[in-house]
């Protein structure tokens, strides 16, 4: 292994830059050359590849987004796309690849490894929906962004004695909703992994009202339904005319938290070690504060699950 490359793919996440920096610096420290591929798998197929030096990743650790740019490129699922990608890697004499991204990016990494090109996956997505790791890079930052918004909405909700619905991202996963709802003391947390009953939600709000609560906040994960649809249903069930806030892409930006920077640094460095050992087809992750690696195909087969105990705790504490 003499020359490795790195790309970021799918939705960006705060901390992707910190992970890229770690890969570049650790690789150079180990005597490797590193190449950056712009725009994820799209850039790989198009040969949008440049050499990275120690200085290329300077002043990057604290920046959100990804300086390698990102793209969603479903065409990489085709044989044609994958063969073109491998052709580019060979042309640039690259021996190993690190892919930072979510589920779709892992499929690309798996396909390249199956075709004989060692590739490592680093979990980078705000959704926290990748198996084999307790946390994905970007989740903690997104969570704190949501929490900041939730705290601010609580101020105005109290002043006007209003009910607020906050729609958060997460695709099919409810982690952002659950963790922000628990941290922000939401009255109800609606996630795709748990069924809900609108009568129960209304009952909960009514009880709060009866004991003098000045506001109610409901966090709805986008994977269940939109915040606006939830508000319409809620109005049909009870006397609640909720205001809706859709946080949207604000959740994807911003400077990564210390947690995300440290996680990204650890995972980036471990990826390089694995490539140095000539091991591909692995996804790195963190489990009980230890850096681990798992077979990427196994990770893709496992469905991410919500922390049931945390969900139960959130509903106990919000009565
Ligand atoms: O996967 C990250 C994510 O932000 C999801 O939470 C969301 O559903 C999706 O990406 C939005 O995708 P896009 O930025 O392409 O609209």
UniProtKB/TrEMBL annotation:
GO molecular-function terms, A-Z: 6-phosphofructokinase activity; AMP binding; ATP binding; fructose-6-phosphate binding; identical protein binding; metal ion binding; monosaccharide binding
Record's subcellular location: Cytoplasm
Binding site for ATP: 11, 72-73, 102-105
InterPro entries to which the protein is assigned, alphabetical: ATP_PFK (IPR022953), ATP_PFK_prok-type (IPR012003), PFKA_ATP_prok (IPR012828), Phosphofructokinase_CS (IPR015912), Phosphofructokinase_dom (IPR000023), PKF_sf (IPR035966)
Predominant location category: cytoplasm
Subunit structure, as described in the record: Homotetramer.
Record protein name field: ATP-dependent 6-phosphofructokinase
